[in-house]
Amino acid sequence: MSENDGLTEKQQIRLSTWADGQGGVINSFFARRYLERNAAAREYVHKIKDARIQIRQALEDAALENIPERSLWDRVEKRIGEEERARLFLGDRKEGTAGRWVPREMVSQLKWGMAGALVAACATIVVGNFWSGALGLGAYQAAGNVREKEIARVQTVSEGRGEEPLFYSMAPRSENSVNGPGVFEVEWMKSRSGHVRVLRGPGGAPVIWVKKPRGDTGNQSIQLVEPRVPEALAVADR
Amino acid sequence: MSLIWTKWGRIRRLVSALLAFIFLSAGVALTEGGEHLEQALKVQIRMVKALGGKPAENPSGAEQGKAESYKRIDRRLEDISSKLEHLPFDTFQLVSNEERNIACKKKQVFQVGGGQVVYLRPLYLSDNKAGLWVRWEDGGGTEILDTRMHFDKGESVIAGTESEPGGGTMLVVNVSPLN
């Protein structure tokens, strides 16, 4: 603004402030007084309003120029189509594992696996202890069966060499079996000095006797007596 | 991508199965062997010399065992006299006696006399049964007997062999709980 407009700088400031809706009562009083008495003041305010309208229009035009071609919904629709195509080939999308030390699904799976394993282990311990208490060691439950059948199984090794085992199976005990011996089970029994014989007596564990071949102990070899043992059946595979 | 997920699923199942196997194995080990670990036992090994192929006609003296069987049995072998009387020897004499308190499943070596060596490992001692591994060697290192057996608790296992004409050497092993 210049002096040619018939307004001083102070009047222009008061009019600009009033046009902006600012200023106090005094400023508004003087501004209205200028507008009533001075045509230049009215012209000045009118120019300010026109300029304000032009600026607003320019800003709106600039804002409209920055809007992309496709709207947000177009972008969403495009993304939905991509996801559907990806699901056809890759399956349903799941939560990623990036940044996670152990994947959540694996943790969940392992939790169930560990819980199941713990339950199974506890059940094994409980059942095993029950069997151990009732029948002795579970591993030797077969021995209990042997006792019921009154059959003793021994494994021996042939004379001298001791490489090829002979399997002797004593026949079931008859009349002595009611109050007869308890459990005696042999996993293996071998000797490199002679034959191994098992002599079962009236009670308890039998006597194991290694009978050396003739010549090792002189001509008088001990003749063993097997009391109340009917016979020993050789079932060796040789 | 789908292959990766498939492999990952297999890995998860494999890990779960592995964990289950480990827990089950631990449970079985605790069940079968846990109660016997660190179990202290008393092991007694006696060496007995047997003599005579015929019954003594006039049994007498302090070493007389059962008179009706005409056998002379060392008094220190009285607990196994019922077994000895069925053996074809007249006299049974204790040569050596050794007792040790050992831990279960620990191998022990016993020098039982005459250069003979006994390697022994008690396997377990339950309420009614006992397990034992025994290896008996003569003075020359020849294996007389090597066995692993299970028998009633409190029983004495007797093993013998002919050591001289008309005579024999016997090994008596007893496993009992440590009082």
- According to DSSP, the number of beta strands of chain B is 9
- Helix count of chain A equals 6
Q: What series of H and E elements makes up the topology of chain A?
A: HHHHHHEEEEEE
Summarize the main sheet of chain B: 5 strands, mixed
Oligomer: heterodimer
Mean pLDDT of chain B: 80
Outline the structure in words.
- The complex is a heterodimer of chains A (238) and B (179).
- Chain A is α+β, with helices and mostly antiparallel strands and 238 residues long.
- Helices cover 47% and strands 13% of the residues of chain A.
- A 3-stranded antiparallel β-sheet of chain A has the order 1-2-6, with no helix packed on it.
- The termini of chain A are far apart.
- With 179 residues, chain B is of the alpha+beta class.
- Chain B contains 2 helices and 9 strands; from the N terminus they run H-E-E-H-E-E-E-E-E-E-E.
- Chain B has helices at residues 2-32, 81-84; strands spanning 40-51, 72-73, 91-103, 108-113, 116-125, 129-137, 143-152, 156-164, 167-177.
- In chain B, a hairpin with a 2-residue loop joins strand 4 and strand 5.
- The radius of gyration of chain B is 24 Å and the shape is elongated.
- The interface between A and B is large, with 68 and 59 residues.
SSE topology:
The complex is a heterodimer of chains A (238) and B (179).
Chain A: H1 9-19, H2 25-37, H3 39-65, H4 72-90, H5 104-135, H6 141-149, E1 153-157, E2 165-170, E3 184-190, E4 195-199, E5 207-211, E6 232-234
Helix pairs in contact in A: 1-2, 1-3, 2-3
Chain B: H1 2-32, E1 40-51, E2 72-73, H2 81-84, E3 91-103, E4 108-113, E5 116-125, E6 129-137, E7 143-152, E8 156-164, E9 167-177
Parallel strand pairs in B: 2-3
Antiparallel strand pairs in B: 1-3, 1-9, 4-5, 5-6, 6-7, 8-9
